[in-house]
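Q: Structure for this?
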Amino acid sequence: MRLDVFRRELSDHRRSAIACAVGAALLVAMYIFFYPTIHSSGAGVQQLLNTMPKGFRNAFIGQGVDYLTPDGYLGTEFFSFLLPILLLAMGIIAGSRALAGEEKAGTIDLLLSTPIRRRRLAVEKIAGALLPVVLVAAVIWVVVTAIGPSQGLSVGAGDLAAALAAIALLGIGFGMLAFLISSATGSTGLGGGVAGGLAVAMYALNLFGSLVSGLTGFADAVSPFHWYGGSGVLANGVPTSGILLLIACPIVLLAISLVLYDRRDLTA
Amino acid sequence: MRAMSGAAAIVCEKLTKDYGSKRALDHVDLELRSGEIFGYLGSNGAGKTTTIRCLLDLIQPTSGRATVLGLDSHDDSIEVRRRTGYLPGDLRLYENLTARQLLTYLGRLRGGVPAARVEELAQRMELDLGQRCGAMSHGQRQKVGVIQALMHDPDVLILDEPTATLDPLMQRTVHDLIREARDRGATIFVSSHDLPEVSRLCDRAGILRHGRLVAVQDVNELAEQGQHTIAIEFREPVAASAFEGLSGVSQVTVADRTLTLTVSGDLDSVVKTAARYQVHSLHSAEVDLDEVFHDYYRAGTDDAP
């Protein structure tokens, strides 16, 4: 019984993972090839940005970040919205289906009639389901590092890895929340819905937090979209407290999932 | 291991399961002897599947307990499942896998099962292991289910309605496989709503009704409870009186040239009487099990808890 469930789960995700990786690679490459054009029309772009309210600029570009630098450009285009949402969606979909999908499909009776502990089943399942999130993040790192310099987009390989790891953890965290709710209730829809809804709410909170000064402290503390460093992540690095929270949350959520799943009556 | 023949292989002690305010299982006390084929009879919703899912720790009883091979169904669940083969009543397979991939996967989760054993079972069940489960008919899926339950030669077999979707020929093959498992020492727990099947296959049977075990007895005794509704179409007019008064016969009616009646037990006297006339066609249907239980329940109230 050497990680058979993990490998099965990973294999079930291989098509969607490859599709996500290819899609992300193409999208990222497209933005990279845009960079020289944006950079050469720098003055005009800067002028346009200056007309934006300061709060908006900080929200989308990052505090004190120059949009036209490689860090500013990639941070704004990739890390404020696009990549976090992609990894988050992957995490939530895979997390909500990992165990509850077997219940929905009615295959869980067959699977759990074998001598495998429920906790082990759960860990192998969620690991296999969420590994593609990490793989897609890795593919993005490779694409940016490989073709970025040719277009004048050189970012620190370590900074980029840290930033991608942070948003991968964001995706894993929300995926783990979806997993917890789904595996504890047997409902894929409930877990996916709650985690997805919470992600939208947290994104909005983070956005409003940077626009409304009275809300900033609360939003920064609560919203995972602030934890990873937002669009300024490449320029300013991942905040230490943020990365700790992003690591701690999935672990706590997993621990709760295991306790709840272990005692549940599985739906027939 | 089989030395404890005669000892209890499965025991339920006051096994009770509530779903909200609905009581699905009500203090079921049950004991299966090692090496027997035990039929668990009941209509749909009687609690058969609930009992079985408790034994496999897929659900936990509200109160009471169960043991399999002396092992607690919850605390020692891993060992119970290692030594048990299980065919779910509502069997679902991984649609994207071939039968061989599925059986290999389940086999690996059991620590490995000889491929030769799987091939042998597939041959006897006439199943193409290369076929994708998603493209299989009900009967073929059921064959995959039977193979995965038997492939590791378990000490206990728990089969929830094993032959419900199989044609008669395949039913016989499955019955043969079950008997072979018994002959090598396994204990078999078969749920069914089909009285004739249970009487053909099992040594003893328990009758479950609305979550309560109302009777446990040898199948020979139980078979006498079996009832058939028979319709005979004659080529000539026939009088009801010729059949009334035959042993076990009731509810005789004649409409046109078709005679309808209900027989409990042997059909011998009815067939012999019918043979005196020109018979055009004969239909026999098992009386709904629930009705049999109802009769049984009324007749055997002394046995009921």
